[in-house]
Input
Amino acid sequence: MQSVSTPLLVTLTFLFAYPFLIYPLVIMLWARRKRRVGKNAHPEYLPHVAMIICALNEQGIIGEKLANALASDYPPDKLTIVVVSDGSTDRTAEIVKSHQGAGVVLIDQKVRRGKIANLNEVIPLRNEEIILLSDANVLYQGDAIKHLIARFADDSVGCVTGKVILTGTTSDLHASTEQYYSLEWTLQRDSSAVYSMVGADGAMYALRRELFRPCPNDTLIEDLVIPMHIISERRRVVFEPQALAWEKGVESIPEEFRRKVRIAAGAAQGLLRGNVWPKNAPPRFWYIFLSHKFLRWLSPLVGILLVITAVVFHHSLLAEVILFSSAIFVLLALLGLITSWPSAIFSAPFYFLFGQVATTVGLLKGISGTQSVLWKKIDR
Output
């Protein structure tokens, strides 16, 4: 029994811990040796850009968003702002109309269809070299677009994502999300240095128009599917930390839970359809994909299997250590939930288990096809 339990428990423990504890260290050390990300060497690279904003009932922010975009230091004769009102029932379209003629174009869809259906229709009709996708509630720093676009001077780059900072996140999640995004930005920077990051930040990313391919209209997370197609064309997706923007964070735990469920459901959908696998990518990107994303997506299943195995072989010393450690981790997470203490000792275990539960639900919804492509609009 011991000869079976120890190797099995060690293997499961390694698979569970690897994407969270080991991979970040490996990619950091690798990136130091193969640094390709640096300051933009071609700030004069200024192709024509179409910023596309899909908006649903955004009357409270769309005016500020347009003013923010028009105030960018990118040459105004090379920047067109296209707003797609996706079946809005408020004053969104009316507000955008008032800005037309100042480099702003309105596409007023009377029936709500979802973001990807609109992108599939609008992007192929544009003739700008670069398409910049932006959420309506994301406000850019003045030089953000220039920093994003400058990276395209490198022919190997097909997609660039910026650094979107969350503001006003609920106090229950503020410390946890700060810790999470700080780690994610580091991983994105390092994977960009080694070769390419996986996916992009849907709130703010740019791509070469020629590389865009329509996705199925029920695609849940286009900011994974579109970049993965670009990678299959042997182009890189890179993180540009100098392209700064700010976005209103989630205001409640249920809102964040729904967001994480949707992301996991989209990952499951993409894996089953085959359009998020890194086809034609070099081995180093397969390593990044499997380590940073695939094993993370599977981590709840591995974790459940690990605990079940430890219970079955509970007489093993290693099993006892695993069960005891798991119990302590859950206790710290519960204390973090109950007390909302900002200390990482409590907030990190809570946010981690919170994410594991959301990922499990999302995987099930993605596999069963029960996750709606239409996002739920949150009233701010």
